[in-house]
Amino acid sequence: MNVIILLAITGVFSMFSGIFKQKMLALPVILLAFISALVLLSFGYLGDFTALTNNMVLFDDHAIKFSMVIVFLSIFIFIMGQYYYSEDIEHLTDIFALFVFSIVGGILLVSFQNLTMLFLGTEILSIPLYILAASNRRSLASNEAGLKYYLMGSFATCFLLLGITLIYGAYGSFDLDIITAAITAKGLSSLFITGVILILCAFIFKLSAVPFHFWAPDVYHGAPTVLTAFVSTVVKVAVFGALLKFVLFIGGHQGDKWTLLFMLVIIATMIFGNIVSVRQTNFKRLLAYSGIANVGFVLIALLDVNDLTASYILYNLLAYGIASIMAFSIYSTIKTHTEIDTIEGIAGLMANNKLLSISLIFAMLSFAGIPPLAGFFGKYFIIVNAVNAGYVWLAVIAVVSSVIAAYNYLRVSATVVSHSSEIATIPISTLYRIFLVACIICIVLLGILPDQVLVILG
Amino acid sequence: MAGLQDQLRLVPLEHYVFLCIVLFCIGMTGVLLRRNLINVFLSIELMLNSVNLLAVAFSVYHNDPNGQAFVFFVMVVAAAEVAVGLAMLVMIYRNVRTVDINALNQLKW
User: Fold this and answer.
1) Which residues form the domain of A269?
2) How high is the mean pLDDT of chain A?
3) Per residue of chain B (109 residues), what is the pLDDT tens digit?
4) Could you give the number of structural domains in chain A?
5) Nearest residue to B40 (alpha-carbon basis) of B27, B28, B31
6) Which residues of chain A are within 8 Å of residue B76 when distances are taken between CB atoms?
7) A213 inside domain
8) Is the Cβ pair B74, A161 closer than 8 Å?
9) For residue A115, how many other CB atoms are within 10 A of its CB?
């Protein structure tokens, strides 16, 4: 709860620093606030706000772990944002403030204990994102991305709301504990089942899993690249945090009613995401589809929820997130300096841009799941968990689809080192060099020390 | 207050639920079929408000004020959402001089 207050104040500060012409202050203060938030979370200085929050927000272990990953990935996003927005744009501080508000929404979302907070968290997370997607006002692509995101997001919100209201109608409360008690007393009602299905649909929408994925590639393509990186990493962590909590909540009352629904979504998402990405020529779209495929992969972990599920999900999202932020930032660097955005276009990047190419190859190999890197263990834990739970054929599909995915990523790596053409040297700043090296170190460390990371996350 | 609740209870709960689902479906059809952005926004509002009506009806039948408090949250959020949506509409109108949804076809797979 301390963290929410700290970050909300930081967001307001960032807005005011723009009004008072102190633009330079915004980013250092935000980074400082996020690092202190990370410290507060990891040492558990969260304050006792139970009397104030009326059991609507619960900062248990689950919420702390997910918040830690959200805050950690956000730090990378802000450093990338500093580089992305380096030309002097007019509303820089407002853009950063919107990111901060969205992160506050994400933290509220993972700590919900009341269905009202589920709704509010989703909206506080989403509304800044609609604005940010459209924030490149003169670009038609950005306008379109913003509008599509807005329409699809509000549409999904309506389903979420209807689901919440139906659950309220069934048991007369929004509180998860009271609903659980009422279910044990009165049994499952059909209103509750309908409500749960509607809420799950809204979650699938937010996660951009098949069948509600169609907005995602367009939005990812048209929106500013920082926002794309943010949506495909931090937002996914927050939504998965809420979804895991929700699955735990319904899990006690259903047996395996929802398993079939989940399995269909998972298979469709993995196969669709990977097969469609094979025929992509645009690099940003390739990353978008790889994000969709990864969502399908992480959803497998939700089929068999046990004590370690949260740490598996977080490990995968962390590994995927860091590699993804790095790949998106390299894409935007190349795009800004050379106007290249296709995969063929980056052929021969290696000749004059060693650091950029090596980082890109590291990201791609991590996506592909080459063993010493983080991406491998992210997939490994989830597959082993699925096999142990008896979903062998699902694990087979997962492995096959990740082989297809590996083809994609290796295709990019091969293009980067090919000698068919050359790209002139792209000037990059020292801060950006440090950022890339830090990302590579994180990917390698996560891959070398998976057990230790799991202990921290578990 | 009790008199009002009794009057609201004259209509059976099923009728409220039926009305709200019908309104919700009308809104959903509007979002899916309409091509004018303002109509699409109106349809989304219709969906949100049908949910509000449902929450109030349940609240009366459960004798529980939480449902009505929830409606206020929904109203505030809906207002924020529409503010963003209309701002986006104005921005798009400035760029393409139309509010037709088909004018936006830059992004395709």
Assistant:
1) 258-458
2) 89
3) 568 888 888 889 899 999 999 999 999 999 999 889 999 999 999 999 999 999 999 999 998 899 999 999 999 999 999 999 999 999 989 988 888 888 777 766 5
4) 1
5) B31
6) none
7) no
8) yes
9) 27
pTM: 0.94
Chain B CB contacts of A143 under 8 Å are 88, 91-92, 95, 104
Q: Is A342 helix (H, G, I), strand (E, B) or coil?
A: strand
Amino acid at A13: F
User: Is A54 inside a domain boundary?
Assistant: no
Distance, CA of A75 to CA of A54 (rounded, Å)? 31
Among chain B residues, the shortest Cα distance to A136 is held by: B91
Which chain B residue lies closest to A127 (C-alpha atoms)? B81
Do the Cβ atoms of B107 and A145 come within 8 Å? Answer: yes
Give per-residue pLDDT as tens, A61-116.
899 999 999 999 999 999 998 888 866 677 888 999 999 999 999 999 999 999 99
In a domain, A113, yes or no: no
Residues A318 and A73: beta-carbon distance below 8 Å: yes
Identify whether A211 is preceded by a cis peptide bond (ω within 30 of 0).
Answer: yes
B36 contact residues in A (CB cutoff 8 A): none
Q: What domains can you pick out in chain B, each with its CATH number?
A: 2-99 (1.10.287.3510)
Could B77 and A119 be called an inter-chain contact, meaning their C-beta atoms sit closer than 8 Å?
yes
Taking contacts as CB-CB distances below 8 angstroms, the residues of chain B near A162 are 24, 47, 51, 54
The stretch A240-244 carries a mean pLDDT of 94
- Residue A174 tokens read as 């929004």
